[in-house]
């Protein structure tokens, strides 16, 4: 998510939200302020919440403080919190930060939870203050008893009976001595029934051992009190969540005599917290666990006792097409059905299914028994997704999914590494044809990482001057004279040494870096060619530069080439731009339209690797091209020079036909990958114009080309 700023807060939205908030509170009846004062106060709180929403780094603490401030301002009606949370969930993001609402949902959920927690904490502290007053009154009654037993007993009874919270007194064996009416009402008993009950009978089973350990520490004098949240059984066996404060009463000799428990019913607050936690950890559309809960469970696997873990990372194939063609409503319904099927397909195995976002889901196999078991899970998921889905009146939708599978030992890896591997493997499954699973391969993964590292290093390498050009001679087959050179880029990596082009040119094309790199190659090649032209004008040496499809598609390519020629002083006729067949055929679009503009500048246009793609020969005569470069495979079979070989004879006839066709169209022909004298002789006999390959020299430095030109003067 990009960095947020306070400028993204809508001032008008803050005011409108505060007005809605105030109206929601006023609808409940009594509020402790006038409408104007209420709205002014809530506007200030809204401003605080809005600031927290976009603050960097993000923290929900301001929302917690707002919740406490509401209690301090005496907005303590239980319904007020309900209306506050409802208004926040429905309107806050859309009014306060409408431009960023989609990006800030998780923050808004966190603020909503913190607001509720702060409000609950404020109420709790307020109650505790009341409890403290009651406790002081109890102690005062005890002290007064020493002086005036009757008076103190009367005061104690008044406090005990009239307290709003539950109070209970038990002896050191857990037998209840007395309780007030509030405590009895909480548990659904009468006071008389409570007086013949042992505390242990009320404990929730999971709490029992811990509670008795606490009592033991009190009896042993290790503590005089404790405060915990615990569950009790009501008489009807439903669960009561309480905030329990227990104090030890000692006699004059310091011996423990009684325990006094003050109990607050926090069931509603606890259930609210659980609802908020569920919302924070589950996807609102599908009800599945979300990425937060998934990563919690995945981290727990690595902190636990499991020895192996498996992850199936799933992505629907073609989901975007469903959204675009049928609408987001249908897309959402499809996701709901897929989520339900995925959960059902692995529920018997006890695995976690979570939605990561969009159309991505993940299945966690927490204690894998091996690769085969995880593959079974993946295949069950693929089968569940593949069933056609009927949504309302639409035709049944058929979708498939791709799954990346990672199964490995927990030791020696981490959750982050597992998910990176799963994401990489999902990409492999997509690339291998979709509708299938792929299993993580460490060797392939290492290769992928190396490619990613090279791709990431490309921009910096160009800025640091790590690229250089070499030039491969192109020689006239009849004259034997050096008539052109092809500029070839090389990468001198500081750690890997000389990186061959086949390792980085494809990456540059995939990342779009080929445009910058191609621009640099063109500039450097033209600078060098202009220098050769000034020193050897009679040679009329042509420099040939490859032009990638993306580069040819770039806006302003014609102006860019013209500008380079003007800056360097290179005659346009001594620059040749090489494009592949796929770049110049009609289906390629923009390069065809830009060809005429490039040709109009006077530069030569050549089709590289001619014959490797779909060659629309009739279209050649309508293109402003000057040369064809025959692909290497046609020349390779001519290496032996054995014309009796059938493959060699076939390739000879193809080369002969292509040369004749090119000459008929007024084009010159260059044969690539010429490596033997026999090949050169045969090509010369076939009237091929020029040759390029190891026989005439490999790629070399500009200095070597200069020396070669001087030697032929």
From TrEMBL:
InterPro entries to which the protein is assigned, alphabetical: Biofilm_reg_signaling (IPR052155), EAL_dom (IPR001633), EAL_sf (IPR035919), GGDEF_dom (IPR000160), Nucleotide_cyclase (IPR029787), PAC (IPR001610), PAS (IPR000014), PAS-assoc_C (IPR000700)
Domain named EAL: residues: 451-713
Record-annotated GGDEF domain positions: 307-442
Ranges for domain PAC: 226-278
Superkingdom of source: Bacteria
All residue ranges annotated as the PAS domain in the record: 152-222
UniProt cross-references to NCBIfam families, sorted A to Z: GGDEF (TIGR00254), sensory_box (TIGR00229)
Entry protein name: Bifunctional diguanylate cyclase/phosphodiesterase
Species name: Phytohabitans kaempferiae
Lineage, opening ranks: Bacteria, Bacillati, Actinomycetota, Actinomycetes, Micromonosporales
